[in-house]
Amino acid sequence: MSPRRYRLGRRAEAKADTRERIVAAAVALHRKKGTIATRYADLARQAGVSLQTVHNHFPTLGALLPACTGMVAATAPQVTAALFEPLQAPEDRLDALMTALFAQHAHFEPWMRWAVHEARAVPELEAGIRRWRDDLAALLAKAVAPGFAGKPPAEMVALLATLLDIESWLRLQSQSALSAKAANAALRHGAITWLRQYLAAAPSQVRPGTRAAASTRGDRS
Length: 221
Fold this sequence. Notes:
Layout lengths: L2 H31 L6 H8 L3 H7 L3 H13 L16 H29 L4 H22 L9 H11 L1 H11 L3 H21 L21
């Protein structure tokens, strides 16, 4: 390797390391006091770099927040269709999705308890949360689709998405003094009950597999 190529490689490594330190600083500060109260000067101090360096790497909040989300999400429980695709009964599929979703809620809770409120004032946060909610609604529709010939009622999907949203999960704990486990059980019961009511209104549909009866008796996460 030529000396010049070696120097360029070391420079790229140093740049990547600096970027990671800034993102880690943002993740820590956003967890501690939210996005609005965290200034770029705070990031510079926490990361041990100059204020200009922070701006060079992340000129806007819109550039910084996705990097922060990516770092936190890298260790989060994954919520994908692969969780329920091997299952047939709509209740079982929804139950499997909820188990992973509640674990993901718990992982993101230290940041989302700020973000769900700050999103009203921070467009970049609002856009990210909206994308997450759209993805959740799409997953919910896919999970329960077998019970409705592939076309679940839109209003039912909207109800489930609202019920299982992380903001509902957080509010249930803060306003009802429930533990996370109790909140999970209550939301699980509500979601399965709603699903069964809609399934009962569509008696012509074939419901393959077995019911997730145990899911209404408590949380297993």
